[in-house]
Specification:
This protein is mainly α. It contains 19 helices and no strands. Helix 5 packs parallel to helix 17. The longest helix has 35 residues.
Length: 364
């Protein structure tokens, strides 16, 4: 259970130690939380791989009994998911109507993949809410607040890593500056919690064979290349290559991006998720951001993709023929959505302000 790793790191910090990535310290804290000591192996102790600041933040829940802390953490994330769904549905409703908007958003937020995050005790519901509020702040022309609201996603950097190039190309310097300030807080806070030496331990954990195999189990697009090859390195190479292509496309389309900052940021969040070299399937719930923002422009296409995504999620992933169906849908969907939203004939003068060029956002 992933919450066990986070809570045990919180207990390590609460006890005054900085060894949040040390197997011995985590094992002792996890045994304390579990009430017994499992046999040492690949699954124990569960490694903590988030920035160390996360361990400091989770302390109030980490001191609770494991089941109580898990229940509270899961409940907080479910509430965050529900709030995000309500906000994103309201955004899409004026053009789509309430039922259709709600259907698209709920499919994205409360998918079967999201359910695994709930079972594991993951924090992606809170990440989704932060991204949702950032979109709302940007739409209201508060770029600094939007950048600060994106900062919590840096606790899982793979969820936001392609947003900064969007902001640079769009000339959103205030939003970028706020995001960089948030990154500095995460970095300095993590150094204060774990020390510079222990932060390097996290790199060793992420690249260790016992952890790296998880990259081949994800449904991000790089897994389409890496999984058949059985190579974790291929996942990273594919991710970096695809990201480079995405940035080149952004540069070519810089005029479109500067005229449509909000959709561009939403697509940046979606690209961060879909092109990540390491991704828990529960993080796919963040695709609700581009779905809600772009759906008014191409409702039929998004509805078709949502149906395909749901159908692919029902396939047995243990069968070799089915293991990459979700990632394949994401790949086809990415191409279709980008083409539809950038095609010269797709512009709609009746779009709400959030989908049109917003004066003042271009160089905010």
């Amino acid at each position: 259970m992933d919450y066990l790793a986070i809570a045990s790191a919180g207990r390590v910090v609460h006890a005054g130690s900085s060894c949040v990535y040390c197997a011995g310290a985590l094992g002792a804290a996890q045994a304390q939380l579990l009430g017994y000591t499992p046999a040492a192996g690949a699954t124990f102790p569960v490694p903590f791989v988030n920035p160390a600041l996360m361990a400091w933040l989770i302390q109030p829940l980490a001191t609770l009994p494991l089941q109580t802390g898990t229940d509270v953490f899961v409940a907080i994330n479910l509430v965050a998911m529900a709030l995000s769904a309500a906000i994103l549905t309201r955004r899409a409703s004026p053009r789509l109507g309430g039922p259709l908007a709600a259907s698209l958003v709920v499919i994205a937020v409360f998918s079967l993949e999201a359910g695994t995050g709930i079972l594991l005790g993951q924090s992606d519901g809170l990440m989704l809410l932060a991204a949702t509020l950032a979109v709302e702040a940007l739409d209201r022309r508060h770029p600094v607040i939007a950048g600060l609201l994106l900062a919590p996603l840096l606790l899982k950097p793979q969820l936001v890593w392609l947003v900064p190039p969007v902001l640079v190309i769009a000339g959103q310097w205030r939003m970028l500056g706020a995001l960089i300030a948030g990154a500095a807080v995460v970095l300095i806070g993590s150094i204060a919690v774990a020390g510079a030496g222990h932060l390097l331990d996290a790199v060793g954990l992420v690249t260790a064979p016992t952890y790296a195999h998880l990259d081949l189990q994800s449904n991000s697009i790089p897994a389409l290349i890496a999984r058949p090859l059985g190579s974790n390195s291929a996942a990273w190479a594919a991710s970096v290559s695809l990201a480079a292509v995405a940035v080149v496309v952004m540069v070519v389309m810089r005029d479109v991006i500067r005229a449509n900052v909000l959709p561009a940021v939403a697509i940046g969040v979606g690209l961060s998720v879909m092109l990540s070299p390491h991704l828990g399937d529960y993080s796919l719930m963040l695709l609700a951001i581009p779905v809600a923002v772009l759906a008014p422009r191409a409702p039929a296409l998004l509805l078709l993709l949502a149906a395909a995504f749901t159908a692919a999620s029902l396939f047995n992933p243990l069968l070799a023929l089915n293991e990459s169906t979700v990632a394949l849908v994401l790949l086809v969907g990415l191409g279709a959505v980008v083409w539809r939203t950038t095609h010269p004939g797709s512009a709609d003068p009746a779009l709400p302000v959030s989908m049109r060029s917003a004066p003042g956002l271009g160089n905010a």
